[in-house]
Amino acid sequence: MKKSNITTIVSIMTLAFMATCLMAMNPALASIGNAFPEIDGTTLTLISTLSMLVVVPFSLLAGKVAGSKVKYRTLALVGILIVSFFGILPYFLNNFYIILISRAFCGAGAGIISPLPSTLIMQLFDGKTRENLMGMNNLAFNAGGMVFQLIAGLLCAIYWRNTFFVYAICVIGLMIVFFMLPEPPRIEEKDENSGKKEGITGKAYFWIFTYVLIVFFTYPLFLNMSSLVEKGNLGTAAVSGFILTMSTVGGIVASALFGMMFRFAKRRTVSIGFFLCAVSYVIMIFENNVVAFTMASVLSGLGIGFVTPTAFMYLGLEVEPAARPFAMSLMMGLPNLAMFATSYFFSFIKYIFNITYPRYIFVIGLVFYAASAIYFWFSKIKINGNNVKEEQAFDETNS
Questions:
Q1: pLDDT per residue of the chain (399 residues) written in tens, 0 to 9
Q2: Do 336 and 217 form a contact (C-beta atoms < 8 A)?
């Protein structure tokens, strides 16, 4: 492989790695809550979920202007700068609500970054290289989640404020992107806007919605893990961080095995992913120890790791090339809206039905996962006829 290709791939994978930086706060939620005892639990989760909400409009904005009105490289550098500055800033702040504002700005930066890796792969590469890099993109995405959460948990175990120094990692990413990321050919606005609804079909929205739902029902695992560990006297924030990073390890393993799994199961790979997520929630319902929680986390990561690349690839195959940047921004942005809404949704369900069982969230999630596994096992997936050749290349690459 040419040196220029290697540096380009490294820079794109660096962007994918940093796209999960907002998850760094999850292992620290219980410790931050102890520092602000006057803040209720639902408001406390805004430390994580508010930034996820802000990702949505900025991700969509980046998807609309990337390559046509603003250079990819410019967007990447601006996004990383915002994340680096506002990610570290809360270390120096004492007011909870000012910290929330800083987290919102951090989400804006992450939103700018999030659609860029997959779009750059689609724009700079083709054929088998592109298909392989989509798998690597998911692997880097999972690796970023693992590293950010693990380091954040370790820093938080020392002192809760230290958690925010995890964003110093992004400064390294800034240097890599500045020196290595090339600028793809400019996309003319008339081409990008061609086609009805930006070329995004109903089936494309189906894949986006599928990904949004799996994130919606999976994120409670991340939000509640630190509380479950603390209330169960199972350890500190470092333990929570370790358990949550094992989900990312599961995602990395799934990415490595994806080709073999797809060769074996084809489109039923999605069903298998949902089944693994269902098993993880069965464990979360009935067990209460670190080993069981770790196993559940790994299985959840495996399940999502099988669903995600399949959904992203079929989304890309369903839309025309000019519409892919915006389609990818929807795929990356809308799940963050789900992350924001999930705690409020389950709190509302708990209040309406007067639920006292503390792990009801996992019961509801289990029903969704099981139903989805059955649906995708028997459903037949078809794509845009214009992209049949690309679908065949995808099948051959993973066979």
A1: 455 688 899 999 999 999 888 888 888 888 899 999 998 877 888 898 888 889 889 988 888 887 778 888 999 999 999 999 999 999 999 999 999 999 999 999 999 998 888 888 877 887 667 767 877 887 888 788 778 988 998 899 899 999 999 999 999 999 999 999 988 776 555 444 444 444 678 888 999 999 999 989 998 888 888 888 888 888 877 788 788 878 878 888 887 787 778 778 877 889 999 999 999 999 999 999 999 999 999 999 999 988 887 888 788 778 876 677 788 788 877 887 887 788 889 989 999 999 988 889 999 999 999 999 999 999 876 655 455 454 555 555 444
A2: no
Q: The CATH number of the domain where 65 resides is what?
A: 1.20.1250.20
Q: Rounded to 5 degrees, what are φ and ψ at 194?
A: -75, 150
- Structure tokens given for 312: 């992203």
Sign of torsion over alpha carbons 199, 203, 204, 206: positive
Q: 33 is in which domain, residue-wise? A: 3-397
Instruction: Give the tokens for residue 327.
Output: 């389609």
* Tokens linked to 340: 């924001």
In the chain, the number of structural domains is 1
Structure tokens at 137: 């993109």
pTM (predicted TM-score) = 0.72
